[in-house]
Design brief:
Length: 410
Amino acid sequence: MSPARTSPRTRLAALTALLTLGALIAPVEAAGTPPAGAGHRRPCVASRVPDHGPARDVLGIARRAKTEMDLKSVIVRVTVDGREVVTTALGESMTGVPATPAMHFRNGNVAISYMGTALLRLVDRGVVGLDDPVARWLPDLPDGERITLRMLAASTTGLVDYVRLPEFQQAVVADPYRQWTAKELVALATRKERWYEPGTNWSYSHANFVLLGAALEKITGTRLDVLLEEEVLRPLGLRETRNGFTPDIPEPVLHAFTADRGTYEESTFWNPSWTTAPGAVETTDICDLARSAGGIGSGRLLSPEAYQELLNPGTVGLGHPTRTCPATVCIAQTEATHYGMGLLVLGDWVSQHPLFFGYSASQAYLPSERLSIAVSTTNGPTAPAGHSAHTIAQRIAAALAPDHPIPDFG
C-alpha cells in the first residue's frame, strides 16, 4: 500500500483495520496504562516483518533513511491509540552487536516535558500557581521576584542559554566526561546580560529547566527524580525510563558515536549532567518513548485547563529579535509552531526531539488520530549534523497522516 496510491482516509482506515486485527490476535496495553501483573510487562521487542500496509511503509522509510544519512542504528515504534503498528531496530549498537528495541538511550529534553507536566499537576491540585514568582523558592536567583514558574517552564525568562557560550562549548569539548553541577550551570547563565526582560520574548535556555527542577524540589520537598517518578513516569507506565546521576546507562545499551570533536569516536558515556536539571537526566527505550509521546501529548494526566496551558502557556505571539538576541535565538512563536510548557507544538503534533553527541531521538503525537511516533538513531562516520530521528519522524508522519505534516520549528 503506497502513500501515493491511497487517500489519507484510506490509509488511516488501513491502520485501524490493522490494529483491530492485532487486538484479536495479541492484545497490547494502551499507551500510558500501567500493565497488570506483578510488576512485569511485555518486553520491548521487534514486531513481525510486515509484507504490506502502513507497517511496511514505516520500515521502508527507516531503511532508506539509515542508508541516506549514514546512520549506525535506527529504532522505530509507531502506535495508534497505544496499539502497535510496527516496532523495529535496524543496524548496530556496536560493531557486530545488532541494535534491538529493548536497548536504552538518552531521552534528553523529553524529560523537560515531564517537568512541565509535573508542574501543571501541582497547579491542578492548587499547590502553586503558574504566575507565582520563583523567588519564593529560589531566593538567590537574580530578578527572582519578576520570574515566574510559567516563565521557567515556557522558557521566557530572558536568561542566556549557557550551551551557546563559547567558554562552555570549549570546556565540554575539552573534557566531555566532566560532571557539571546545577550551581555551575546557572552561574554561567546569570552572570551574562539577559537577552530580554522576563516574559517579553521567547528563547530556549537550558538554564530555565535547571532552575525549574530546583524549584519543583523546593515546592514539594521531594528530590526531582522521585517527584517525576511519582507524578509522570509511574502513572504513564514508563518502567524503562529512569534518571541517572552518573553517565551510566542501564543494560542493554544502545551505544553512540560522534565526530563532533573532529574524529569519529564513541560517545555513549560522555557526561550528560549539563543537559538539564539533576534528577531529570534520563534514559529510556523505544517502547517507553512511544508511550511517552501519547501520554504527554494527549495531556492524559492533566485537567483540560492545564492541558491547554501545556500546549500554549502564552508563548504564541512572542519571539522577535532584539539588540542582544538574534532571530535564530529569539525565534518567532506562531500558532503553527511554538514552544509549550517543556515541549513543542508543531502543526497538529505535540513533539520533542533531543540531540546529544551522537544520540538523536524524536517523540511525536497527533491527538486527532491518537498516532504516536518514536524514533531513536545513532550516527555513522559521515552522518550529517542535526536531528536525524526527527527527520525520520517527519517522513513517517507524511506517509501515515499526509494531511498532518510535522513542520520544522523556527
